[in-house]
Design goal:
By secondary structure, this protein is an alpha+beta fold. Helices cover 30% and strands 13% of the residues. The protein has 17 helices and 16 strands. The chain has helices at 72-82, 147-160, 177-185, 193-198, 205-208, 231-238, 256-275, 291-297, 344-348, 366-372, 382-385, 394-397, 424-428, 432-438, 448-465, 471-482, 490-499; strands at residues 41-47, 89-94, 121-122, 127-128, 133-137, 142-146, 165-169, 214-221, 246-247, 280-283, 302-303, 309-310, 318-325, 354-356, 359-360, 388-390. It has a 4-stranded antiparallel β-sheet with strand order 7-8-13-10, with helices on both faces. A two-stranded antiparallel sheet has the order 1-2. β14 (354-356) and β15 (359-360) form a beta hairpin. The longest helix has 20 residues, at 256-275. The two termini are 53 Å apart.
Length: 510
């Protein structure tokens, strides 16, 4: 089925007529069709694979209040996809009126009165963005703002809240879907079943939060405020002290989920107070979101060979968060990659989890094994973990770009007592109450006391099997492990016995 629409009503109501502007159309892309953009879209062609669907092409989809001219084809294609028409092809032909300064009559309105501003040519910037100027009209508020100036304002508010950088990304991540599917098909997600469960929703922001047309990405540095120069060498030196337990730098302070989510909410609330009613949701590593992909597309940096995001001015020692918006803002320009021929991160990975540039097998990653994995750590992986008991920073510590890593401006990420430089024997002796008290408000708490003891036991076993400890140091570790042999949880028992090189009493289920 194909419909060519100009300035007339299509008999099947596949697309709204383009002859009359409806200012509320930005709210819903048609109960029964596509958004009318007079003198912007000249024709729309829709090919539906099954003729039986011709009466079902409602394509309900909340797009929001603004559009970028360049993204119309992909937006309309996504509309078709969201409607369940995976084989549908949508093409849009735009006429020469785009960017000629045309304005819609502000009196033309429908629905809830959400306003819409048409093409606007900005010669100074050399580009046309439909809603570089965005107008919101309602009975409660009348506001107009410049899209670029709005982003700059958001950046200022973000800095006040402790963020380092703000970017804006679109919602078309279709080019990332193939890579995500390939990663899942290889089983690289390991036991993180939620990665496969959510599937391509990660690459489709508008499926996760209907109505999303823009994503604000936020970056927050997390090196503790008192971090000294040469911190990377200091972190590498910890690996040479086998009796010390190493907690990843990001986890030594307050739980970043709490910090970022709270501050992103404050940022979004401030935007709503300034812009008027808008729909939004904030995320921080807490939902099916392709964080690094969105961040790289919004100019926050580029994907390093270790798959983390890298920034020329800040390395990779930062957290990412997002605000999904139903208002379109001008997207930020991406940056070029600057890894070149460097492969330091690949060489430094203790378990060779970076199986190829930009490809990580989580099943081999120390961070996955000590945090996400809830069963026994595979025997072949245990010696490779060394004295890392929660996460791993090796690929970041050796990265040349992290000589530019910035200190946080917030006290939240300052290292807590007991999580830096503590002896493994001391950590093994933590009771569950001690563990809960020392990890209150920390991301470590979520692994629980049992997995904590599992991780510490592996590190103690590696220390005992090495030759760097003195006889008294070895005796302290052995005595601490022996106190845990009768632990009620078989997972702890197995790893304690392995550390002492004693036969397991009963195998722990995988």
């Amino acid at each position: 089925m194909q419909g060519d629409i100009s300035h007339r009503q299509h008999a099947g109501r596949l697309v709204w007529p383009l002859g009359k502007f409806e200012a509320g159309a930005g709210k819903n892309i048609a109960e029964t069709g596509f958004l009318p953009l007079p003198r912007v879209i000249e024709s729309v062609k829709v090919k539906v694979p099954d003729v039986q669907l011709r009466q079902l092409v409602g394509l309900h989809y909340r797009i929001g209040r603004a559009f970028d001219a360049a993204s119309h084809p992909q937006c309309l294609q996504q509309v078709a996809h969201q409607g369940g028409f995976t084989g549908t092809q949508v093409t849009v032909q735009c006429n020469k009126c785009v960017g000629e300064g045309w304005r819609a009559d502000p009196l033309l309105r429908k629905g809830d009165g959400v306003g819409f501003i048409s093409p606007f040519q900005d010669d100074a910037r050399g580009r046309a963005f439909y809603n570089r100027v965005v107008t919101i009209n309602s009975t409660q508020i009348k506001a107009q703002f410049d899209g670029d100036e709005m982003v700059a304002q958001i950046q200022g508010w973000a800095r006040e809240l402790g963020f380092s950088q703000i970017g804006v990304a679109g919602v078309d991540l279709s080019s990332a879907e193939a890579g995500l599917l390939a990663w899942l098909s290889h089983g690289f997600h390991g036991g993180m079943g939620y990665m496969a469960h959510h599937g391509l929703k990660r690459a489709r922001p508008a499926e996760l939060v209907p109505g999303t047309v823009s994503v604000i990405t936020a970056r927050m540095d997390y090196l503790p405020r008192g971090t000294e120069d040469g911190w990377a060498d200091a972190e590498l030196a910890r690996l040479q002290r086998p009796g010390e337990g190493i907690v990843s730098v990001y986890a030594r302070g307050r739980d970043y989920h709490k910090v970022l989510r709270n501050r992103l909410q404050q940022l979004a609330d401030r935007m709503a107070a300034h812009m008027g009613p808008l729909g939004y949701r904030v995320f921080t590593d807490s939902a099916p979101v392709l964080e690094a992909e969105l961040a790289s597309r919004s100019g926050q940096g580029w994907r390093g060979k270790h798959t983390l995001l890298l920034n020329r001015e800040a390395g990779s020692m930062f957290f990412l968060g997002e605000v999904y918006l139903d208002v379109a803002l001008p997207p930020s320009a991406p940056v070029e990659a600057h890894c070149g021929s460097c492969s330091a991160c690949i060489s430094a990975c203790p378990t060779q989890a970076i199986v190829a540039p930009h490809r990580l097998d989580a099943r081999r990653c120390v961070s996955y094994l000590t945090i996400e994995h809830d069963g026994p750590i595979p025997l072949e992986m245990r010696p490779l973990i060394g004295n890392r008991i929660y996460g791993c920073d090796d690929c970041q510590v050796v990265c040349p770009w992290n000589k530019f890593a910035k200190r946080s401006t917030l006290p939240d990420f300052d290292a807590r007592h007991g999580l830096t430089g503590s002896a493994l024997a001391t950590l093994m002796d933590w009771t569950e109450d001690t563990f809960l008290r020392n990890t209150e408000g920390s991301p470590i708490r979520r692994i629980g006391h049992v997995r904590w003891l599992r991780n510490v036991a592996v590190a103690m076993g590696n220390a005992l099997q090495g030759s760097a400890l003195s006889t008294p140091e070895r005796a302290v570790l052995v005595q601490s492990l022996q106190r845990r042999i009768s632990h009620p949880d078989p997972l702890v028992q197995e790893h304690v016995l392995w550390a002492l090189q004693l036969p397991a009493l009963t195998p722990t289920p995988s």
